[in-house]
Amino acid sequence: MNAFFQALENLRQKPIPDLTPLQERKRNYRTHPIDRASGHYGEKLVEIRDFGIEGENYYCRTDNPPYYEAAPGAIDRLFLRESVAIRLRKVDRRLREIGLRLHVYDAIRPRAVQTYFHDVWMPRRVREWQPNLSDQEMLAEVEKYWAAPTTSEESPAPHSTGGAVDLTICKIRNAEPLYMGSIFDDATELAHTDHFERVAQGALGRISDAEARQNRRLLYWLMIGEDFANNPHEWWHFSWGDQMWAKLTGAKTAVFGPTMDA
Fold first, then answer.
1. 18, 91, 136, 234: least surrounded by Cβ within 10 Å?
2. 1 belongs to a structural domain
3. CATH number reported for the structural domain that contains residue 232 in this entry
């Protein structure tokens, strides 16, 4: 086993900490201040595939469980802020040394897509699961996974800023994704990043659970190592520079506001 492979294997053995405190810290993140004087505030958007990072917009597809439809307003491009793309490229290059790579599901997300899932698709699904929730409880459940669309420059949805990205790890040889224990956009506790850290130890004798736990660890620690923050409700969601990142990391201000038509 070469030294580089061993270094990444060590990350697969390093537990993700209890993220419950971050779930609480995340609350009201969209009230966190944004520094418009930051040198990053007006930073340009780049297409991540121009940086050698592969992916496909999940919401443009029709083979995209649990939706099985292209979302209204979805774009087939994957735009992020340049500094975010540079950080991602570092992670991707580390993985490629052992036959793995990143695969991006979503980056910049137009307002129409955010609106559809926040206002239509997700509330409908929550009502199916939990028909007795009050309107306020239903909204709280929706917003664990789908932020409200941007209506103010002071409070942008994370994916409207160019600082948030949804991604996983794939094998280079056949593009097979590593097993993470849930589908992308699973809106249940199974998607919580530390879910498999909290599974009873005896249950981890199941090969699938143990594999998901180790693969989530690898993705988590690689991204944290490049100063990204993880949304604790979603193993695939990481950001740098937006309000969620600032709130979760303790940064005094975010550096990105909304961009494009998001």
1. 136
2. no
3. 3.30.1380.10
Hey, which bits of the chain come out as E strands?
45-47, 54-55, 79-81, 100-106, 164-171, 229-230, 237-239
36-65: pLDDT as tens digits: 999 999 999 999 999 999 999 999 999 999
Q: Residue 181: which of 221, 208, 202 has the closest Cα? A: 208
Question: Closest by alpha carbon to 64, among 76, 53, 50, 52?
Answer: 76
Does residue 241 form part of some domain? yes
- 258 within a domain of the structure (yes/no): no
CB atoms within 10 A of CB 235: 28
Cα four-point dihedral sign 154, 155, 160, 161 = positive
Residue for token pair 């991540």? 48
- Domain assignment of residue 2, yes or no: no
At 165-196, the pLDDT tens digits run 999 999 999 999 999 999 999 989 999 999 99
Backbone angles phi, psi at 167, to 5 degrees: -160, 170
Question: Exposure pattern of 103-114 as b/e (b: 16+ CB <10 Å)?
Answer: bbbbbbbbbebb
214: which residues sit within 8 A by CB, 6+ positions away?
A: 12, 13
* Parent domain of 157: 16-249
State in Å, rounded, how far the first CA of the chain is from the last one: 46
The count of other CB atoms within 10 Å of the CB of residue 196 is 26
| Total domain count, the chain | 1
